[in-house]
Write a structure and sequence with these properties.
This protein is α+β, with helices and mostly antiparallel strands. It has 4 domains: about 5-125 and about 135-145, Jelly Rolls (Sandwich); about 155-260, Jelly Rolls (Sandwich); about 315-460, Jelly Rolls (Sandwich); about 505-700, Rhopdopsin 7-helix transmembrane proteins. It has 12 helices and 33 strands. The strands form 7 sheets. Strands 7, 22, 23, 24, 26, 29 and 31 form a 7-stranded mixed sheet that branches. The chain has a 6-stranded mixed sheet with strand order 20-21-25-30-27-28, with no helix packed on it. The longest helix is centred in the C-terminal third of the chain and has 25 residues, at about 620-645. InterPro entries: EGF (IPR000742), NGX6/PGAP6/MYMK (IPR021910). This is TMM8A factor. Its main location: membrane.
């Protein structure tokens, strides 16, 4: 046999602490056909700075779709199927880099996914630039060993093979045709080189994670062995591996024979179905009151078709896949939403999810029993949803499983007429919905019975659009798209249905009121500015108060939300007003000449607007203007002090009762903003920030010029002639 090794790699990604599925970094690989060995090379590394500590990285694996994970232990939506993912942990302690290998023998061909993340996020809101987070990097590479000339086992034809040694297993493959109910594999004339009965182990199927359903048969001391598979995967290559359990120098010769038993499917699809589908989109269906002259089936023909269909092993119901959007599909039944279900043969619906782009959403199946159609009150309609192949013996086994897949059972009856199933991240494959009527006293009483079940099936990015307290986000990894729910207002879970930490409506209203009404503390600062003739500064404070109030009214995560304009616009205006308020306050304290002050006002505002457009949350967008304004203020105060040969401002009352309280409030506000805010306490810590900043502005504004009288606007407006007065700048202020 000729083996070929291949190597696949993807770029490293920076890991994040986990709070929702978008924090997990996804890697998507495609394993080629005839792969006998798969090896993952997982490389994790961290930075070298003092902020880097010991860290545990969790890595999840899954075949066919992204892994469904729950690191936070939150609730999933009702009726959702959850099977734990296969995961490992990689620890970064004293070493800067960790390399881990994961081997998978005889892996299934197709899509494989890896998701990696750090532990749960601490929830602290970090200001960009105040702290440097430690970078944790993760990279996944894939090595595959592929057999280029794997023998093909033809149905009904015995194929002799030889296992040279136990160290080298025999690999063959067989193609499973559609509508196969049972596959029979036989080993004949299995003897060793010493003409003794052989000892071999036969493995059917490939490994899929997190669950693997390989079938293993051990033949010891036997010449002939056999194995039967119920409901093998349709229209797929099935790998068979035979390993020798004998001595190291003993070869094994064996004949392999595969046979299939197929069923004869019945179908209700015809040209009439497609005609009805076309007319259902443009007008009434054939046979309705508005479709006079349309071809319809008579009652006798309908009964004859029903009796003929009961002679088949299954009844196919034609289903049309209608693509609506990205990861959004609706399935329409050509014969209407209701399907007939009997006890003689299962009714089968094919749900096509094999495009490779359907595994990033949620498959939702809803069954509704028509009670009036049930001729037997105690009968039950049993359904099974499975991938790759359907379950065709629900009435006999009552088991919702195929050869290599554990399906999802559903039941509807007159007592419980509705059932729903949500498959999170369904694997890429053909999915089947099987329905059959079951009677408690035996199938004899069900032979003449029939039930009508309405089937609604669709693929959606997020179930229920994440509810009122979540946002459905479309995520991307290279060309692959998948969806996840980002929850708010304390809600959690896969679809934001976990109410463990959810905020009540009253708490949401309180948070909104605190964050908005705390901006009214700017009113004293505005009044002080107007009283002291700082009208430009008062205008800036009014602008900041207005946009901060309505930005926080729009920024709320719950139902207490009011947006007067676009959210992005409100956020930008709030950030701009906050920084410009600090800028004009410090420049006003510097007591420079008016013309220079107003030039700096305008020039600084333009530069701040530009920097906020580049990076809105950067700490230097606030610290840069503040530091530059402080340099100007200190230089001006030094100049005034040197010129007067006295400390500036000269009054100790100004220092004790105004400057020191204002500076203290400002430092406390910065400390709260930079180091104390978390997701849980944001609504009151940020409200404290509003109160402290607005209060500090009222303390820090300098007194008005000596020559200006308070509220003397009427004299200025009515006086036409006046004696010239000295408007020179004062070099000091007296309180």
């Amino acid at each position: 046999s000729l083996y070929v090794s291949e190597y696949f790699s993807q770029s490293a990604q920076k890991l994040s602490f986990y709070s929702w599925y978008g924090n997990a970094k996804l890697f998507h690989f495609r394993v080629p056909e005839d792969t006998v060995l798969l090896r993952w090379l997982l490389q994790a590394s961290r930075g070298k700075g003092p902020e880097c500590t010991n860290m545990e990285i969790t890595v999840h694996f899954r075949y066919g779709a992204p892994p469904v994970i729950n690191p936070l232990g939150t609730d999933f939506p009702a009726n959702a199927t959850v099977r734990p993912s296969y995961s490992i942990s990689i620890t970064l302690s004293s070493v800067v880099q960790n390399t881990t290998f994961v081997n998978v023998t005889t892996p299934a061909a197709g899509d494989w996914f890896i998701a990696a993340h750090l532990p749960e996020a601490a929830g602290r809101i970090e200001v960009k630039g105040f702290s440097t987070p430690c970078p944790y990097m993760f990279q996944a590479d894939m090595f595959v060993l592929r057999l280029t000339d794997m023998p093909v086992l033809e149905p009904g034809v015995a194929m002799p093979q030889t296992i040279v040694s136990p160290a080298k297993a025999l690999h063959v493959k067989v193609f499973v045709p559609k509508h196969t109910t049972v596959m029979q594999l036989e080993l004949r004339n299995c003897v060793t080189s010493g003409q003794k009965a052989c000892a071999v182990r036969v493995v059917l199927g490939s490994i899929t994670l997190p669950q693997s359903f390989q079938r293993i048969v051990t033949c010891v001391g036997k010449v002939n062995c056999s194995l039967a598979l119920d409901s093998p995967p349709w229209e797929k290559w099935l790998q068979i591996m035979v390993e020798s359990l004998g001595a190291a120098n003993a070869s094994v010769s064996v004949e392999m024979l595969a046979s299939f038993r197929a069923c004869r499917p019945g179908s209700t699809s015809s040209f009439l179905n497609f005609s009805s589908l076309n007319q259902s989109q443009t007008g009434p269906r054939p046979g309705s009151a508005g479709a006079a002259g349309s071809p319809t089936l008579s009652t006798g023909e309908t009964s004859r078709n029903a009796s003929n269909q009961r002679s088949f092993c299954l009844q196919n119901q034609p289903v049309v896949r209608e693509d609506l959007d990205v990861v959004s599909v609706r399935y329409r039944l050509l014969n209407g939403p209701s399907v007939p279900v009997n006890s003689l043969s299962p009714t089968l619906l094919l749900l096509n999810l094999n495009t490779g782009m359907d595994s990033g959403g949620s498959l939702v199946i809803n069954l509704l029993l028509n009670k009036t159609s049930m001729s037997l009150a105690n009968a039950t309609v049993v359904a099974c949803v499975s991938a790759a192949s359907p379950v065709l013996s629900l009435n006999a086994t009552h088991n919702c499983s195929t050869a290599f897949f554990q399906g999802y059972p559903l039941r509807v009856s007159t007592a419980s007429p509705e059932a729903m199933l949500i498959v999170l991240y369904p694997q890429t494959d053909d999915w089947f919905l099987s329905l059959q009527l079951i009677c408690p006293k035996g199938q004899g009483e069900c032979n003449a019975a029939e039930a009508k079940v309405t089937v609604f099936a669709y693929l959606t990015p997020c179930f229920n659009d994440c509810g009122p307290y979540g946002q459905c986000s479309l995520l991307r990894r290279h060309g692959y798209l998948y969806a996840g729910c980002s929850c708010k207002a304390g809600w959690g879970g896969w679809s934001c249905t976990d109410v463990t930490k959810a905020q009540s409506v009253s708490a949401q209203n309180l948070a909104t009121l605190l964050l908005t009404l705390s901006n009214l503390m700017f009113l004293p600062a505005i009044a002080v500015a107007v009283y002291r003739y700082y009208l430009v500064e008062a205008s800036v404070y009014t602008y900041t108060m207005f946009f901060s109030t309505f930005y926080h009214a729009c920024d709320q995560p719950g139902v207490a939300v009011m947006c007067i304009m676009n959210y992005d616009t409100l956020q930008y205006c709030d950030f701009l007003g906050s920084v410009v308020s600090i800028w004009v306050t410090i420049l006003c304290m510097s007591r420079v000449k008016k013309i220079l002050k107003y030039v700096l006002f305008v020039l600084g505002t333009l530069l701040i607007a530009m920097s906020l457009q580049l990076d809105r949350r950067g700490v230097w967008n606030m610290m840069g203007p503040c530091l530059f304004a402080l340099v100007i203020m200190i230089a001006a105060w030094v100049y005034h002090g040197v010129k007067r040969r006295h400390c500036y401002p000269p009054s100790w009352k100004r220092w004790v009762f105004y400057l020191l309280p204002g500076i203290t409030l400002a430092f406390i506000a910065i400390s709260v903003y930079a180091f104390m805010e978390t997701n849980e306490n944001y609504y009151y810590t940020h409200s404290i920030w509003h109160v402290l900043v607005a209060s500090s502005v009222a303390f820090l504004l300098p007194p008005r010029d000596k020559h200006k009288k308070p509220w003397a606007w009427s004299q200025k407006l009515t006086c036409r002639y006046q004696i010239c007065q000295n408007d020179r700048e004062e070099l000091y202020a007296v309180t």
